[in-house]
From TrEMBL:
Keywords: Lyase, Metal-binding, Zinc. This is Glutathione-dependent formaldehyde-activating enzyme. Transmembrane segments: none annotated. Residues 22-168 form the CENP-V/GFA domain. SUPFAM superfamilies: Mss4-like (SSF51316). It catalyses: S-(hydroxymethyl)glutathione = glutathione + formaldehyde. Its EC number is 4.4.1.22. The lineage of its organism: Bacteria, Pseudomonadati, Pseudomonadota, Alphaproteobacteria, Hyphomicrobiales. It comes from Kaistia soli DSM 19436.
Amino acid sequence: MPEKVLLHPAIDDGIVAGSDSFAGGTLVCLCVDKPVKVRIDGQVVHNHACGCTKCWKPAGATFSVVAVTPTANVHVVENGDKLAVVDPGALILRHACRACGAHMHGPVERDHAFQGLTFVHTELSSDKGWQAPQFAAFVSSVIESGVSPKKMDGIRARIREVGLEPYDCLSPPLMDALATFAATKAGTFRE
Ligand SMILES: N[C@@H](CCC(=O)N[C@@H](CS)C(=O)NCC(=O)O)C(=O)O
Ligand SMILES: [Zn+2]
Ligand SMILES: [Zn+2]
């Protein structure tokens, strides 16, 4: 029997639909003592599985699940002194809890198509109604975390089976946003 392909706990047992009227919630890190808490006002968008090596994954998961929300909607409300930026040179300034390692919020501050957005992991919240994962991004990148290339057909098949489209970069709307930004910078943008 072929080995079962595990993607992420929020996907493996069936994707739970989000709520259109969801008003937001609080992310809590994995620490038992003095957990970091981050409140998000309102719903997230572009929630997706990410196979890249940089996004935070829970133990045993091959993919992370990460979404974006306007940075203005993100508020560190408790124990923010435990946070540190993982890589200050990265586009996404991932603020991780120094004790448990969970990435609590990742703003994009630099001049970029995603400037003003923050990347967050809604699985760190017990609130119900967050947008469900919509697609899988950077699927080929799981090879960089040690997944055998021989497993990629099975991984992509499983992603499709759970109802997501696998992409090796971002989804078409996000890639279009990046290209629109580049075209605007280059002066080649047309309405
Ligand atoms: N193949 C690379 C891809 C890394 C990458 O480009 N990740 C995307 C998706 S999260 C990104 O936008 N990264 C920006 C950043 O890490 O700041 C890896 O797996 O490390
Ligand atoms: Zn923690
Ligand atoms: Zn990623």
